[in-house]
Write a structure and sequence with these properties.
- By secondary structure, this protein is mainly alpha-helical.
- It is about 65% helix and about 0% strand.
- The protein is built from ten helices and no strands.
- Helix 3 runs antiparallel to helix 7 and helix 7 packs antiparallel against helix 8.
- The chain starts with a helix and ends in an 11-residue tail after the last helix.
- The mean pLDDT is about 90.
Length: about 250
């Protein structure tokens, strides 16, 4: 029930924001709709099953992550005004609608472990799996938030225009924010393990999906191509990519 409801809610939220974005030809609401979808699910789904403390905390973890990410992305789009990912979509309603449909499905799939957890009527206690999962979630949240803050501060400095960031967490990873996001969702899966039995372990599709999406589809590949187009002729950038891990923060190669 909770999983089905999560798909319905995600589709409804994204359909509403698609209507706004298509009518006004604006990119301002796009990233907001992504994080808001998670926030709405985190608030609504606890009413489907039992509302034990261990379940409400899982919901709260999603809500905290969604609010943090939503505020960051919303401030960013207000500053840059345009998201060039949609330059070839805004005037093509069907293609634009397909993006929103895929975003809605992605939200519901990524939420699978938490949706399943929140729909259970019998909840185990707050044990070692929940503690370990919450710890991984917290590590991911901190890494993602710090990386985003460092990149935002870097870009706001006039002297950094046209330059790429290679300081802070970005010295150890070319995409530390994505690494943090993956940890968030793997942490929530670990948190949900005591609720899972048999085929229920299929909800691991959620963290696997976001990992594959960021590694091979719409995350790292797009940003790597964009960075190569901007800085590919810069010897400093080529050296940066040679010595810096693409995802997992590691000491720079010598």
């Amino acid at each position: 029930m909770a999983i089905l409801l999560s798909f319905v809610i995600a589709l409804a939220v994204n359909a509403a924001f698609f209507a706004i974005a298509a009518a006004r030809k604006t990119d301002v609401v796009t990233d907001l709709s992504y994080s808001l979808s998670f926030a709405v699910l985190a608030i609504v789904l606890p009413f489907v099953g039992a509302r034990e403390a261990v379940q409400l905390i899982a919901s709260l973890l999603v809500l905290i992550w969604a609010i943090r990410l939503g505020l960051y992305l919303f401030r960013r789009i207000l500053r840059i005004k345009v998201d060039h990912r949609f330059d070839e979509m805004r005037d093509r309603p069907i293609r634009f609608a397909r993006f929103w449909l895929l975003q809605a499905i992605s939200v519901a799939v990524i939420m699978l472990p938490v949706s399943y957890l929140l729909g259970r009527n019998a909840a185990p206690g707050f044990g070692v799996w929940a503690i370990a999962g919450a710890a991984v979630w917290l590590l991911g949240l901190v890494i993602e938030a710090v990386a985003d803050a460092q990149k935002s501060a870097f870009k706001e400095k006039r002297e950094n225009r046209g330059r790429f960031i290679e300081s802070g967490l970005w010295r150890y990873s070319r995409h530390p924010n994505y690494f943090g996001e993956m940890l968030v969702w793997w942490g929530l899966f670990v948190y949900a393990v005591p609720f899972l039995h048999g085929v229920a372990f299929a909800v691991v599709i959620g963290p696997v999906f976001i990992t594959v999406l960021l590694l091979f589809v719409s995350g790292i590949p797009l940003l790597e191509r964009s960075a190569e187009a901007k800085y590919g002729d810069d010897p400093a950038y080529r050296e940066y990519t040679r010595r810096t891990s693409i995802l997992v923060p590691l000491p720079p190669r010598s």
